[in-house]
Amino acid sequence: MIVGCTTSQPAPDAIRGPPARHRVPVLAALLLLLLAPVLAGCAGQPDGGPQDDKASAAPRWQPRPGTSWQWQLSGRLDTSVPAAVYDIDGFDHTKATVAALHRQGRKVICYVSTGAWEDFRPDAGKFPKSVLGRGNGWQGERWLDIRRTDVLKPLMAARLDMCRAKGFDAVEPDNMDGYRNRTGFPLTAADQLRYNRLVARLAHERGLAVGLKNDLDQIPQLVGDFDFAVNEQCAQYGECARLKPFTAAGKAVFHVEYELPTSRFCARSRELRLSSLQKKYELGAWRRTC
User: Fold this and answer.
1) Each residue of 187-201: pLDDT tens digit?
2) Which of 104, 140, 240, 281 is most buried, taking the most CB atoms under 10 A from its CB?
3) Is 86 helix (H, G, I), strand (E, B) or coil?
4) InterPro entries per the record (predicted)?
5) Helix segments in the chain, DSSP class H
6) Ranges of each domain in the chain
């Protein structure tokens, strides 16, 4: 900790120009040279403000293929599961919960929906009706018009700020393949690539790792933008080999099956180095591992 450092937070899209040049007396210049290491420690972004990749003091967490995990989005959180990674709801859990998992040596992923609106979230009223599309099959949820980044960027940035403020290591942005669904909007693959990269950049600016949720068709274009993948039911639909670009890049693939027993997918999962679980659709604490 450096005593006496002060920082100020720029506007989100502020551009800082080079500092003006001034003549400095010789003694003052010498003093500045002596203080340079201290001043360098004060020059970073303030705690709680956006950071780009170069400004981050520490490298992002990078989960490796085969990392064990637990995915729980409903029910009382069971922190006794022997897994290196917990993926939990970002809104439902507190900074204290994340800290407790960290004390147990776990990394923690913040689940948030970035491609669909949820009427039960505290920020639901901030989404204008113009960006709300068809239902996505889950009660209280509707697809978002991801073309409207003017509206969605600040809303998603605020959600990722919440993840960072609570101490999460990474984010799992859900509903990242709207262009393949009946959303009510004429979304294209290019729209989806643009939006998914925006979400990845927003996460990285906050020092968070970020996972690509499903969206198998765009893995070749997006594997470089994301730090891991989260997949549902690739074994059931014979698609797990399409996740190879992630494991080949040394990035984890966190995978679940709901309708297949472990005997039907674990051998192939081990071959592909996937981190595979059998779960129930409600994503409570119950799981079976490979």
Assistant:
1) 999 999 999 999 999
2) 240
3) strand
4) Aldolase_TIM, GH, GH114_TIM-barrel
5) 26-42, 95-103, 149-165, 189-205, 219-222, 244-248, 266-272
6) 69-289
The mean pLDDT of 193-214, rounded to a whole number, is 98
DSSP-derived secondary structure for 128-175: -GGGEEEE-SSTTEEEE-TT-HHHHHHHHHHHHHHHHHTT-SEEEEE-
Backbone angles phi, psi at 272, to 5 degrees: -90, -5
**Cα three-residue angle 183-142-275, rounded to 5 degrees:** 90
- Note whether 268 and 238 are within 8 A (CB): no
Chain-centre distance for alpha carbon 260: 27
170 alpha-carbon distance from chain centroid = 5
Q: What pLDDT, in 10s, does the model give residues 129-156?
A: 999 999 999 999 999 999 999 999 999 9
Tokens of 158: 């605020």
Strands 116-118, 132-135: pairing is unpaired
**What is the average pLDDT value for the chain, to the nearest integer?**
85
Outline where 43-91 has alpha helix (H).
none
- Coil vs helix vs strand at 111: strand
Tokens of 175: 């509903």
Query: Could you tell me the two tokens for 191?
Result: 């729209």
- Residue 55 in 3-state DSSP? coil
Provide CB contacts within 8 A for 198, sequence distance 6+. Answer: 149, 153, 156
> Rounded to two decimals, what is the model's pTM?
0.81
**Tokens standing for residue 45:** 């972004």
Residues 88, 108 contacting (CB under 8 angstroms): yes
Residue 149 CB-density burial (10 A; 0-12 exposed, 13-18 middle, 19+ buried)? middle
Phi/psi class of residue 31: alpha, beta or left (left: φ > 0; alpha: ψ in -120 to 50)? alpha
Distance CA 206, CA 52 (A): 7
CATH superfamily name and code, 69-289? Aldolase class I (3.20.20.70)
